[in-house]
Amino acid sequence: MKHARRISALLLAALALLWVPSATAGPITFNFEATATNGLVIDATMQLSSSSSVPAGWYLVTGISGTVIDPTGNTGFATGAITGLDPANGYDIIGKSGRFIIDNKINPMKPFFDYDSGLGFYVGSAEMNIWSGSGYLDWYQVSAPDASYQSTQILDGSYSGEMNGDVTPEPATLILFGTGLAGIVGRMSLHRLALKLRNLTAKSKDQTVPCDHCQVARSRPPLV
Question: What does the domain layout of the chain look like in residue ranges?
Answer without folding.
Answer: 2-13+173-219, 24-167
